[in-house]
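Re-running the complex after MR caught last week's input typo. The corrected sequence lines follow. Everything else is unchanged.
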Amino acid sequence: MAEVPMVFILAGLAAYTVLAGADFGAGLWMLLTRPGRVGPAVTRDHARHAMGPVWEANHVWLIFALAVCWTAYPVAFGSIASTLAVPLFIAAVGIILRGASYALRGQLGGARGRHLVEALFVISSILTPFALGAAVGGIASGRVPVGNAAGNLVTSWLNPTSVVIGALAVATGGHLAAVYLAADAHRLGERSLEADFRARALGSGVVAGALALTGLLVVRVDAPALYDGLTGDGGAIMVGISAAAGLATLMLVWRYRFGMSRATAALAVAAIVAGWALAQRPRVLPGLSIEQAAAGRATLLAVIVSVAVGAAVLVPSLFLLFHLYLRGRLDPAAGPGAAARTRPASGRDARHRTAQAVVAAATLLAGVVLTSVIGSGWPLVLGVVCLIVCAVATFGLVTTDITEEGSNGRAAVRRDG
Amino acid sequence: MPVDPDYLWQARQMQALSFAVHIPLVCFGIAFPAMVLFCEWRSLRTGDPVLATLARRWSKVMLALFAVGVVTGTILSFELGLLWPQFMARFGEVFGLGFTLEGFSFFIEAIFIGIYVYGWDRLPPRLHLLCGVPIVVAGVTGSLFVIAVNGWMNHPTGFTMRDGVVVDADPWSALFGNSYFWHEFVHMYFAGYIVAGFAVATPYAWAMLRGRRGRYERTALTVAMSTAAVAAPLQVIVGDWAAREVAQHQPVKLAALEGLGQTTRGAPEHLGGWYNGHEVVYGIEIPRLLSLLALHDPNGTVMGLNAVGADEVPPVNVVRFAFQTMVGIGTLLALLGLLFLYVRLRYRRLPRSRWFYRAAVAAGPLSIVALIAGWVTTEVGRQPWVVYNVMRTTEAVTGASGIPVGYGTLVVVYLGLAAAVGWLLHRFSRVPVEVHDDG
Ligand code: HDD
Ligand code: HEM
Ligand code: HEM
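Corrected-run output:
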């Protein structure tokens, strides 16, 4: 049971790497707009628009992984967060800058300050995945001991393994983004954009593959234990799957099969996360096995139950979102313009109003007496419910005639002070 | 490992700063979706183009504020680990579940807000309206779970400590079997409606003062003011309940709120003034009121700060000032709300006095001040404990150096963020209003 929450965390991290990674990668392509057939402005617009509707949801994965981690493996979380405070802080600041500049850029148009905002956006798109990758490198190479800031604050994340994983995080993000954006351009029928992003997907795929190979060599010297894990048993299988999926992606992109290539690109990245986990198993931090790190039974059970229940709500919702999104049902341009077909105003009758007023008054009275005068036990609960009903009923009363021109039409403000 | 006391102070400042940024945004997550949905629902029923336009315009603002809420909330998640690793390491297993559950609320909220805002004109109207409902529900559950954590920190239950280690943690009963959290939740929930309502009303009240009084402005003002006005007077009653819970479970906090030095029978209430270490000086004294309010008995005995050691007393003047600010503003807001309701119901129109609109302009910022003051009351009043009577904040703080650098960076970033949000809202308000009369 101690391992189940870890599976959730890894699933969350894999989803974050794939989805948010692509989002960060899109930022990278806003910087590297050349060479290309299409002008930089169009490229940037394409990169920005493509992410719109799913941006918020993509970023929740990280929060989810963090929350499960501190609930199920609290000691490990405390040690990681204190020793790796610097890269995590950089990532956090990067996330703020990125979110803010994203929200702003959409509204800026040609206004002044556009370049500054764009620069912030690009910098944070690179900095954040790098910092997160570096933090992962610190954990993977065994540089985070158990305790409150017990490790080195600098070398725990500025070391060969961290740097190479950070770089890999940036590169895979760029690759994923290029694949997705090529697929989007294909769907929208934008031939030149499609060709541009196809070339980028191929190029960045090669770079990411080369980085991954270099990474293996670096890890061999810098973190032999990790290397052994990655090249033995389960680790090797995952590395193999990742390599195969990566090659398959390149093939598919080459042959313009973008739909499939989305899936294989995601698989290639997710397999790396799984490989890391298998390579480290069962060690979470040096001297701390997953059994030792895990919280008590009741907590683990609670986490498992909540995630299962949560997933029952989440999975259909996510499905709906991506279904609409990938079908282009949430694209900004040319909608069917389904203007609301509406019924004419139906003035509420006076009886209804009176009834509502009676409810509001009665619940107010009951609420005050039950909450304030009696004020404990079940009467209190009932009283609070009454107060809420009162608020709703009063709101209804105040707004019944809101659509009648005359109702708030006589609102002329007096001239005098 | 001994921790530098300066770290603690800076870490607390950083935490407080981040909350002060996040919590006002959260109010929009709680109440704004309901306001937008109300407009859309009524416009579908009646075909009123003004309401339809309002719903569209507001939903864009809602998405932008939500995005900023997401990033500031993400910072808070990081900070829990970055600033208070010991607290997380020791108690994560007790309360962490609250945040796990909250994660799911955020997912739902984020997913449907995307569908809703990008789905205008693309989805059939009824389906579109329906997609808004999960946003409202997730806004409720999101704040519910975080506040369950805060309720637990103020009134820890659901675990046993043995030799400084948590054993027998039962997260369900710690979070939801906790009697302390319901008043916080209800009070915060009402606060969400008050803040969102008044804050949205502010620019329209300003427009009315400047002479822009079209039907669009009047309708927007009516919806926003009505939202806040029905909640503000009731908040006083909920606040009274909150104070009684504090009196029962955290008598030291109550004594700090009131600046009560000595345990007193028939304790008086002081308005204003200053606590000099023994009693309140220069305040207006109202005999026996405190006992009456806190215990429903004018002769009840209220515990004073002298009942505990000096190292267990929170910073009295900060807490007291924050509390009085909240109650003072809360009373004014309640009166403003009542006035609005009276005019609207009695004469079926908006008030005419310019003073009403001036007050309405001020109400937005003031309600945010009250909100933050309320949280300062709760959180600083809990000091020196991070987990009440179990773990001191000094034991929770990180041993990592460099907090001042982080603090400085965060201040700059938040200032930039505030400027960005201000600019964005300004920009939204400049988009010309186009009412499509397509009923
Ligand atoms: C717009 C916001 C707002 C307004 C108008 C009020 N409050 Fe409040 N208050 C809050 C917003 C708030 C809050 C959301 O910031 C707090 C912080 C923690 C909590 O549960 O709610 C709070 C806490 C809080 C507490 C401490 C609870 C605790 O420590 O657990 C008390 C005793 C009160 N309030 C009492 C009042 C009274 C008597 C008010 C009447 C005038 C009032 N509040 C108006
Ligand atoms: C879970 C870990 C938490 C820790 C370690 C923590 C700790 C602290 C500390 C040390 C302070 C500063 C007190 C001071 O300045 O004296 C603070 C302030 C505050 N906390 Fe908490 N808190 C936590 C959770 C929460 C939660 C869940 C909420 C709300 C639901 C909350 C709301 C606040 C607020 C509003 C302030 C004051 C903000 C201000 O001063 O402007 N805290 N917290
Ligand atoms: C320790 C304290 C807190 C942490 C760690 C935290 C964390 C977060 C995170 C990560 C998000 C972004 C979620 C997303 O991606 O949608 C968020 C948003 C939100 N938080 Fe907080 N939060 C804290 C305090 C609070 C408080 C005090 C409340 C309310 C009472 C609250 C209620 C919400 C709500 C309703 C949202 C929805 C987003 C929005 O509308 O802005 N949180 N929070």
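None of the earlier attempt is carried over here. The pocket of protoporphyrin IX containing FE (ligand 3) is lined by residues A 59-60, 63; B 22-23, 25-26, 28-30, 66, 69-70, 73-74, 76-77, 80, 106, 109-110, 139, 142-143, 146-147, 188 (CB under 6 Å). Chain A touches chain B through 113 residues (CB under 8 Å).
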